[in-house]
Amino acid sequence: MEKKNCLILALDVTDRENALRIANEVSEYVDSIKVGYPLVLGEGLGIVKELAELAPVIADFKVADIPNTDRLICEHVFNAGADAIITHGFTGRDSLDSCVKVAEEYDRDVYVVTEMSHPGGVEFFRPVAETIAQMAADAGATGVVAPATRPERVRDIRKIIGDDLHIISPGVGAQGGSAADVINAGADWVIVGRSIYNSDSPADAAMRICNEMKC
Ligand code: 3DU
Fold first, then answer.
1. Is 4 a catalytic residue?
2. Among the options 3, 4, 62, 159, which is catalytic?
3. 64 assigned to a ligand binding site
4. How confident is the model at residue 26 (pLDDT cuts 50, 70, 90)?
5. pLDDT band, residue 214 (cuts 50/70/90)
6. ipTM for the predicted complex
7. 4 is in an annotated binding site
8. 125: CA distance to ligand 1 center in Å?
């Protein structure tokens, strides 16, 4: 993903018409569009190809299965036109290796969740976040997902992965995180959903976030 605005849209609307309208309105401000279960379960995987005409698509399926199932999921997602996939890391190195291998075959990206941004994200993830981040680096992942709601954790994770891996960071706006703070803490991109797609003017909301980050 090319870094221009440091902003990724989390497009968690559930219907095609809204998804395409919002994606069109904000496409000049976002470096990528993240889609996940809400939109894909609502409209099918075909929506990925339509959105990919506007911006690279990150498929946020938080893949978390045995290596063979992970491989099948990644192949489907990349064949559908996604540029990147988000996986979990707690399933272990062999599962992650499977995703990285498929991504290499397709020349696509893999991002690994380290610690989630919601309050419950500390319950089980906190003690293993650093280990998962290290594993992502060792496995050759493109980057990690780390919480904008806790910039200090982004700083900790950056120390572990160094400068070679990217950090994409959800939790800005609706979850309380600040885009500027988490970019200053070492994130490469912020991921923003509700603050943009629920706004009366998604383009203005996206532009404001870009201006705040001055990335
Ligand atoms: O809170 P928002 O509406 O800005 O959306 C954040 C998006 O990022 C949403 O798609 C959610 O599923 C995803 N995400 C997190 O919020 C937190 C994580 O740790 C990982 C992904």
1. no
2. 62
3. yes
4. very high
5. confident
6. 0.98
7. no
8. 15
